[in-house]
Every structure is written in C-alpha cells, then in structure tokens.
Amino acid sequence: MPKVSMTVNGKAVSANVDARTLLVQFLREDLRLTGTHVGCDTSQCGCCVVHVDGKAIKSCTVLALTLEGANVTTIEGLAQDGKLHPMQEAFRENHALQCGFCTPGMIMTSVDIVNRKGNTLDEQTIRHELEGNLCRCTGYHNIVKAVAAGAEAMAK
Amino acid sequence: MYQFTYHRVDSARKAINLAEKNEDAKFLAGGMTLLPTMKQRLASPSAIIDLNPAADKLAGIEQRGRAIVIGAMTRHYDVANSKIVQDAIPALADLAGMIGDPAVRHRGTIGGSVANNDPAADYPSAVLALNATVFTNKRKIAADDFFKGLFETALEPGELITKIVFPIPSKAAYMKFPNPASRYAMVGVFVARRGKEVRVAVTGAGSNGVFRASKFEAALTAKFHVKSLEGVNASADGLNSDIHADAAYRAHLIGVMCRRAVNKANGK
Ligand SMILES: Cc1cc2nc3c(=O)[nH]c(=O)nc-3n(C[C@H](O)[C@H](O)[C@H](O)COP(=O)(O)OP(=O)(O)OC[C@H]3O[C@@H](n4cnc5c(N)ncnc54)[C@H](O)[C@@H]3O)c2cc1C
Ligand code: FES
Ligand code: FES
C-alpha cells in the first residue's frame, strides 16, 4: 500500500493506506480523530470540513494520498491549552447547536470565513458563505448569530 | 469506490505519458466531480493520475494582449478573487464565485469543470459566450467545436487541457438561477459583446448541454439593450424537464436571466 505523510493539528503523521482512502477516513479511522463527521455521500453537507493549508475543504472529497506533505487542521486542533477557540465558545454561548452533528463542519467553515472576510460579518454574508453546510436541527438562526459573535471575538 | 492504481505526477508531460499507457485512466484535478462519482460507483477508472502535485505548473492567471489566460488547474476560488480577472472580465470572476460553496471553490478547477461538461455547470457558458479557446497538450479547440453534448467534449482519451484563453469582451455578465440544494445552475445565461458580435450562452437548461441562444443573439446584435429583447422568447423544445423545473419554466427562466444579464452588462 502507498505511504502518505502529512501534518495534522501540528503533529507529523504517516501511514500506509489503500489508494481509495479519503482524507476523512484517514482522520477518523487511522488517526482516531472522530470530531470530523460524515453526513452525506454527495459532497453537499459540509459536516466533514477541515482546513488544508489554511483553506476549508470537504475531507470526504479528497484522497489522503493527494495531500502528501499538506498541513491539516481539524476541529480537535482548534482549542488551545484546554480553552475553547472563540468560535467554539460563540457556538456554545449562542445555543448554535442541537444534536451537534453538523457543528464541527460549521465551526471549521466559520473560522475559514473569518480568515477570508475579516471580523465584521453581516447576516447576508454569513448565510451566503454557509451555503455548503447543512444543519437539520437549528434552522440556522442561532448559527448565524454565533458566527457573527465568534468573528468579533476572534479579533481580540 | 472500486480499486484503482494511484499515480502522482509533477508535470503535464508525465501525466500525458501515463494516460497513453493506461487506456481507462482518469486525470484527477479538484476531484469535486470525479470523486463523488467514483464513490457512487458510477465511474471506475483503473488508474488515477493525480494532477495536484503539478498544480503549480498547470495553474495561473495572466493577461496576454487582449486576452486572459487561465491555467487548467486554477481553482474556482483563485479565479473569483483574481484582480486581473476582476478588472478585465468581471463577469468571469462573478461566475467563479457562484460555483457551489466555499469548500468546493477551494478545490474545484476550471480545467476539470470544462472537461467534465456537466449540463448544469457554469464555466461552459463562459467559454462559449466569450468565444474562448481551449488549449490541450495536442491542439487548440475553439469553444464552438468543444462542447459536444451531455458530459461530452471534443477531448480524445488521454488528452489534457492545459489552459483556456478568454478574449476580453467590451461588455459581459452572467446570471444564474441556482438549484437551492446543489447550487448548480437550473438556468444560467452568459451574455458577452465584443466588437459587433454578441454571444449568448445558456447552461442548465438544454437536454444536450450548454448551447447558444441565436434568437437572443440576433436581437442583441442589432442593439445591445434589454429593449431589443421585447417579444423574444426561448422555445421549450430540447430543454430539460425534471423534478426541479419543467421545460416551459426553464424556457421562461432563460428569458428572465438573459434580460437581467444584459442589464447588468450595461451597468444597470
Ligand atoms: C457540492 C458541489 C456543488 C457544486 N456546484 C457547482 C456549481 O454550482 N456550478 C458548477 O459549475 N459546478 C459545481 N460543482 C462542480 C465543481 O465545479 C467541480 O469542481 C467541477 O465540475 C470539476 O472540476 P474538478 O477540478 O473538481 O475536476 P475533477 O472532479 O477532478 O475531474 C472532473 C473530470 O474532468 C477530467 N479532468 C480534470 N482536469 C482535466 C484536464 N486538465 N484535462 C482533461 N481532463 C480533465 C477528470 O478526468 C474527470 O473526468 C459542484 C460540486 C460539488 C461537490
Ligand atoms: S460528508 Fe457531506 S460534504 Fe463531506
Ligand atoms: S445541530 Fe443537528 S444537524 Fe446541526
């Protein structure tokens, strides 16, 4: 089996994988990082979003082998020194989740939005940028509030 | 997903050499279409030739004379945010920014989209309306000769798109009525005017893929103004009917999107 090496949440990892292994499988099954979820098989739900070299991507739609040498951040990599990331804290504060299945993807996408669009986000921008993340529970309202609050908190 | 052999290549030449040796090999670009289809077992290539390690050589945006040249591996996100594209052909940057969602745009490529020729994809309408030229490892292909029907193009097996050259129009705009679930175009209309020529390309609607709307082109060539379109309607013949919209509704949307695009191109 071919070998792949990458950096995940700051740690160098490598493994021999079946060529068919998707990044999300590599994260969940080889590295046991089960915070990244799989919510669909059509690349539409966004539950599996992680950052690769600083950009949000769907980990269910990229081969692990493609990411040789890449730098990957998952939801497990956000909290620092036992303290939630400001975006995680904002989701908690604003009751932006119910079952929580979509939440890791929502948060990884939201941090990416802030990286690209800055710390002041209006509702329209947030809703447009979250088009690739589906939530079956909340009705989005509190998620949108959380992203705006988390974006501001990230400036501090 | 069925099994395949994986090849990583760091140049276009290596990709082409491998493709010549493996008849049913597939190039992997952004993977945003190929991987979902492989996961659903609708595609089962025996070999994957991963172009991503060669992305640096096959991607890039530059202006050459009165044209914009975009490398095949250029991601949708980079086209949408390119200052060069925004200045020269803002309609093309707008279009790239409307594809799917941010995560799809971070990986999907222009070469993959054009090679795939999904009947609901956005880029084919830009290639056709802007009268672009598709460059491959073997030849150059004019837009009018490139798209051959549903998921069909003039590309031969193993032929690699290397870049696409878009002449800069004097006016252009793209209007899309997206399917709210998939974000693909239910109907998308790209209008472009260059010199005296006006081209109108429609995606999402045709049961044979992207096409030019000649009635609209003729009316707009006389005068590039929305008033020229009074009484001009698209026929429902040859349009798609599915659970999202029937042919008559799509025909109606072509007219609406075309008028909006003309207004936008005229700065209204
Ligand atoms: C959730 C979701 C929403 C989407 N929404 C839209 C949308 O709104 N509008 C839209 O237009 N598209 C949409 N797409 C499709 C997306 O734009 C894809 O990126 C694109 O269609 C394929 O590009 P790719 O780089 O991902 O190609 P791949 O999936 O890697 O390849 C597609 C095909 O092209 C071939 N190929 C790739 N590169 C080349 C090349 N250089 N030369 C020759 N052949 C090549 C491959 O072998 C394969 O057969 C969406 C996709 C997803 C998952
Ligand atoms: S699991 Fe649904 S988009 Fe990746
Ligand atoms: S909280 Fe349940 S899917 Fe979003």
Per CATH, the superfamily of the largest domain in chain A is Beta-grasp domain
Strand content of chain A: 5-15%
Q: Give the H and E element order of chain B.
A: EHEHEHEEHHHHHHEEHEEEEEEEHH
Q: Largest sheet of chain A, described in full?
A: 5 strands, mixed
CATH class of the largest domain in chain B: Alpha Beta
- How confident is the prediction overall: mean pLDDT of chain A? 97
The structural domain count of chain A equals: 2
The percent range for strand residues of chain B is: 25-35%
Low-confidence stretches of chain B: none
The ordered H/E elements of chain A are: EEHEEEHHHH
Quaternary structure classification: heterodimer
Number of domains of chain B: 2
Q: Report the strand count of chain B.
A: 14
Strand order of the largest sheet of chain A: 2-1-5-3-4
CATH architecture descriptor of the largest domain in chain B: 2-Layer Sandwich
Largest interface: A-B, 28 and 28 residues
For this structure, the CATH topology of the largest domain in chain B is: Uridine Diphospho-n-acetylenolpyruvylglucosamine Reductase, domain 3
Largest sheet of chain B: 5 strands, antiparallel
